[in-house]
Design a protein that fits this description.
The chain is an alpha+beta fold. It has helices spanning 8-14, 43-58, 62-74, 79-88, 91-97, 104-112, 146-149, 191-199, and strands at 116-118, 121-122, 135-138, 165-167, 173-176. Strands 2-1-3-5-4 form a 5-stranded antiparallel β-sheet, with no helix packed on it.
Length: 200
């Protein structure tokens, strides 16, 4: 898999997003502190920037992202909404949203290492798309790991869950109560620009 080794804080500055969107609370950069552009961005540049921003936030490569777009365009409803809802349903994102991982990058690694089950079956594919009613749970053998032990007990951190999922208190288990809607997704992106870019 292709790896972008550019610092996360610098990429966040480039796409004008807070590192907290990715789960990084303490990253920052002094690059271009006044946020002044050297020249006015073209229409194409704005569209490309929005696409790259979503790919960066969710950790998706171009080939897979293009496939998501084509599926979103073929589905009923607004293409941009469908696209964001699809990437939000990825298992690595769901693991992150439920608070089982600090960042999406960590969530992707944990899923790859088969630490989670979906409806009782091990799933090690980060791009697996969850459905309404799916139950995501930390695999029994992984619960003794320090990564997950910190999530239970009196000192367990509190997470603000999206409205489309639930997580049992002091348990390593969550449920997808419904599919997400566009208003449930707090990613700072103008998805219509992505649709315009791919429509050319």
């Amino acid at each position: 898999m292709a790896i972008n080794r550019q610092p996360v804080a610098r990429r966040c500055k480039r796409y004008d997003i807070s590192p907290s969107v990715l789960g990084y609370a303490k990253k920052e950069t002094n690059r271009n502190q006044n946020n002044k552009r050297r020249k006015k961005a073209s229409e194409y540049s704005l569209q490309l920037n929005e696409k790259q921003k979503v790919k960066f936030i969710y950790g998706i490569l171009e080939k897979q992202f293009r496939a998501y777009y084509e599926a979103a365009a073929a589905a009923p409803g607004r293409t941009g909404d469908n696209l964001l809802i699809t990437v939000e349903r990825r298992l690595d994102n769901v693991v992150y949203r439920m608070g089982f991982a600090m960042t999406r990058r960590q969530a992707r690694q944990l899923v790859n290492h088969a630490h989670f089950t979906v409806n009782g079956k091990k799933v090690n594919i980060p791009s697996y798309l969850v459905k309404a009613g799916d139950v995501i749970e930390v695999e029994e053998a992984s619960r003794s790991s320090s990564i997950f032990k910190r999530l239970t007990g009196q000192d367990a951190p509190i997470f603000l869950l999206p409205a489309w999922m639930e997580r049992e208190k002091n348990a390593l288990k969550g449920t997808i109560t419904r599919l997400p809607a566009r208003e449930d997704i707090d990613v700072p992106v103008e998805e219509h620009l992505i649709v315009e870019l791919y429509s050319k």
